[in-house]
Structure formats: structure tokens, C-alpha cells
Design brief:
single chain, about 475 residues, globular
Length: about 475
């Protein structure tokens, strides 16, 4: 890499560390660390939410899948921005009814009791670590493609910076760095796409040099495969803990609704940009591995002086998601597991200290996960199977319809988890036998069990549930 580009990258890392240091001065209690004091207005909410969900999977992962499968993968993955817009219209505003809530577990406890909080905390924590591992792998992939260092070394360098600013600055640091990172990705990744198209001779040249299937709605996917991918992205990351935290960080329902909805709309544009970058890389560098599509285009096609800035924006995309899941995992552990079940009378000072220590430990765990993951998108899809079949649907039902039945939520979460595990890792190839993916089978089990148990045992939450509603 040219020394000018390397300098740009170093300046970017320095900015993140300075933001973390300055943000640490604003963190005086757990509410500051978890939801930034509930003072995030909608333009900032939009930027931080967009930066969070447009991470390594949405950028390099989708570019790599489009490299292989064409725009068909983009069409399937567009289910996520659709889900985000719907959540912004119908779910996010309602979350502000829970005045002191900081986690999904807080809301689940209000509707379904303390046991539901515990299971929610455990499943959420595992899910966040899995997604965080995928982002760590993406960080290592960028460093390998640009600097030629080992992926494992890149994972350690990039995650060390994320751990530093997110541990000391909490949600304040995460949100401020997300805004910087959003501005960078919104400018430099479209710029990369435009430069790549220009180098090819224009859009017509790109179309001529690609397989026809790369421009079709479903490509080489079967109907079942396309529907399975669509459902995976529709449910897999919807209202996950970091995104729910963003809505809870807003001052009121109006800011939550607008910020969430606009972020979903931006997702459609970003998915098109990342998919097109994957197609450009296929024409220019047909022999590279798919996950290298975006970083290779940045390294080889951009002029000196721009490469470092675009590399920084690519790292920004990945790191903005990593810091969100890291912060959320720490808040979940303390808020949903440690405080309710280990030390209920923990002081605010000790709670903040524990959140910071856990933030560091979970980051180290995610690095270990990343060292063994094989593909960014595969790691994401594996983690998705831990969210939608367990927590998502009881959570949505509770918020939308004010349902209150502890047994139904717990039974649904356990049934969804059990079916998903059997489908994915059991002794029989149930997906081949039934045509259903593990995620879809788990979701179906979750809905069926929730409905049956709710109809049979409809009741108020168990003793010990905590109310957060005005």
C-alpha cells in the first residue's frame, strides 16, 4: 500500500481512539453505557442504525455472494431492509412505552416474567457473539486483501481498536463512531462502484461481460432456495439486541420511528451498491475468492490517495457493526443475567465496571470464533438461526398485542432452539428430507408451540416480572 493511503488509514484509527477517550467522560452510569442516556435524535439514530446493520455481511459478504450468484442474492437479501422499514413503522415507536428498558430482556420480562428474561439473555448473548465473530472475520479479510497480512493478524489488530473505544466509551462512543463511519461508507463505497464501472467502460460493458443469470431475479436459485434466503434475511436479524437498543436510545417514539424507517430505506440503496461492486470484481478479477471481491477492487482499481480513504470506509462498515454487537452483548449479560440472578443489589459503579470487563471478554471470545469461521455470510446465517426461531416472534407478539403468558414464551423459545439444533446438527439430513432449512423449521416450531401453549395457559406473567411501561 502507498504511504499516503497508509497514513489515511492510521488517521482513521486515531480518530476512533480519540472518540472513545472523549466519550468515556460522558459515561457516568449504566444508562449512559447502554442507551446513551436516551438522547439520540432521529438523524443520529438513522446514521448509527444504518452503520450498524450495513456491516461485513452487507458489504463484503453481499459483494461476495453477488460475485458468485449475481443480483439474485441482493433480491433475496432485500428482505432485511423491508423488515427494518416495517419494524420502524410498527414496532420501534411502541418500544418507547418501556421507559427504563435497556435490553430485549427487559421487555420480555415485563410480558413473560423473569424466566423469560433469563432465556432471552442467554440466546441473545450467544447470537451477538456469533454476529460479532462474523464481523471480526470481515476485519481480518480486509487487512489480508489490502496489506497482505494473515487474516488472523488482521482480526486481532482491528478488534483491538474496537475493544479499546467501545470498552471505555460505551454506547456514547459506539454512536459517535457510527456517525463518522456512516458518513464514510455513504460517500466512498458508491464512489468505488462508480470508479469500477468507469474502468470497465460503462454500465453497458458490465452487462455484456457478465453471465445473463447474474441479472435475473432468481439467478440459478431454485424457488425453495430463494424463499429460504428471503425468510432468513427477513427474520434473522430483525430487532436484534443492538437495533432494539437503538430504538430505546431515542428520546421518544417519533424519533424511533423516523430513524428506524429511514435506515431501512437506505439499506436498499446500499445493497445495490455492494452487489454491483461484487459484479465489477467478477469481471476484473474472476480468479479471486468471493469474500475478497470488495477489498480487491478497492486495492487495485482506485487511485493513490483514494485507496486509503475507501479502505478506511470499508473497515468503518465492518467495525460499526462489531462495536454495536460488542456493546449490546455486555449490556445483555449484566442487565439480563448478572443483575437479576446473581447480584440484584449491584451498585451503578460496579455495574458499569462489570459491563466494561464483560465487553472486553466477549470481544476476545468473538476473535476466537472468527479464527475458526470459514465464510462471512455463512457465519451470519449460522447466527441468524439462533435469533428468529427463539426470541423474535414472542418479542414481536408481546410488543404488538400486549400478550402475557410466561409458559408460552419459554416453551416457544426452547422448542424453536431444539428444532433448529436437530435440523442443523442432528444425525439426519432433515433439510434434504423436508426441503425446510433449520431456520424455517425452528420458526414454525416456535409459532406453533407459542400459539398452543398461549391458548392453553393464558395468564399474567409470573411473580418477579419487572414493569417498565408508563
Amino acid at each position: 500500500m502507498n504511504s499516503i493511503d497508509l497514513l489515511g488509514l492510521l488517521v482513521y484509527f486515531a480518530i476512533l481512539i480519540v472518540i472513545g477517550y472523549r466519550s468515556a467522560k460522558k459515561v457516568s452510569d449504566s444508562a449512559d453505557f447502554a442507551v446513551a442516556g436516551n438522547r439520540i435524535i432521529w438523524p443520529v439514530l438513522f446514521a448509527t442504525l444504518a452503520a450498524s446493520f450495513l456491516g461485513g455481511g452487507a458489504s463484503m459478504g453481499r459483494a461476495g455472494k453477488s460475485f458468485d450468484d449475481g443480483y439474485a442474492f441482493m433480491f433475496a437479501a432485500s428482505a432485511f431492509p423491508i423488515a427494518t422499514v416495517l419494524a420502524g413503522l410498527y414496532i420501534a415507536p411502541r418500544l418507547k412505552r418501556y421507559t427504563s428498558a435497556q435490553t430485549v430482556g427487559d421487555i420480555m420480562a415485563h410480558h413473560f416474567g423473569s424466566s423469560a428474561r433469563l432465556f432471552t439473555g442467554i440466546f441473545s448473548l450467544v447470537f451477538c457473539i456469533g454476529i460479532l465473530g462474523a464481523q471480526a472475520l470481515a476485519v481480518g479479510t480486509v487487512f489480508h486483501a489490502i496489506l497482505g497480512i494473515e487474516v488472523s493478524t488482521g482480526i486481532i489488530i482491528g478488534m483491538a481498536v474496537v475493544l479499546l473505544y467501545s470498552t471505555v466509551g460505551g454506547m456514547w462512543a459506539v454512536i459517535q463512531t457510527d456517525v463518522v463511519q456512516f458518513l464514510m461508507l455513504a460517500v466512498f463505497l458508491p464512489l468505488t462502484m462508480l470508479i469500477g464501472i468507469h474502468d470497465l467502460g460503462g454500465p453497458a460493458a458490465l452487462v455484456e461481460r457478465l453471465p445473463e443469470a447474474h441479472f435475473s431475479l432468481m439467478g440459478d436459485y431454485s424457488i425453495g432456495m430463494f424463499v429460504s434466503l428471503f425468510i432468513a434475511f427477513l427474520l434473522g436479524e430483525t430487532l436484534v439486541p443492538p437495533y432494539t437498543q437503538r430504538a430505546l436510545s431515542a428520546p421518544d417514539s417519533r424519533h424511533a420511528r423516523i430513524g428506524y424507517t429511514v435506515a431501512g430505506g437506505f439499506g436498499f440503496l446500499f445493497y445495490f451498491v455492494s452487489a454491483t461492486i461484487g459484479l465489477i470484481a467478477l469481471v476484473l478479477y474472476p480468479n479471486i475468492t468471493p469474500d475478497q471481491a470488495m477489498p480487491t477492487l478497492i486495492r487495485d482499481a482506485l487511485p493513490i490517495g483514494i485507496t486509503g480513504l475507501v479502505l478506511a470506509s470499508l473497515l468503518a462498515v465492518v467495525m460499526s457493526t462489531a462495536d454495536s454487537y460488542l456493546n449490546s452483548a455486555a449490556v445483555i449479560f449484566v442487565g439480563d443475567i448478572y443483575k437479576p440472578f446473581i447480584e440484584p443489589d449491584v451498585s451503578e459503579t460496579k455495574r458499569l465496571w462489570i459491563e466494561r470487563v464483560v465487553n472486553l471478554l466477549i470481544g476476545l471470545g468473538a476473535v476466537i470464533f472468527a479464527l475458526y469461521a470459514t465464510s462471512i455470510v455463512d457465519a451470519l446465517l449460522m447466527s441468524y438461526a439462533l435469533w428468529a426461531p427463539t426470541i423474535l416472534l414472542p418479542f414481536v407478539f408481546a410488543v404488538l398485542f400486549d400478550l402475557r403468558c410466561s409458559r408460552s414464551a419459554i416453551a416457544a423459545m426452547l422448542a424453536g432452539a431444539l428444532v433448529t439444533i436437530l435440523w442443523k446438527w442432528g444425525p439426519f439430513d432433515l433439510q434434504a428430507a423436508t426441503g425446510l432449512t433449520a431456520l424455517i423449521a425452528g420458526v414454525m416450531a416456535n409459532i406453533a408451540v407459542f400459539t398452543l401453549v398461549y391458548r392453553r395457559f393464558r395468564a399474567v406473567p409470573e411473580v418477579g416480572a419487572t414493569s417498565h411501561v408508563q
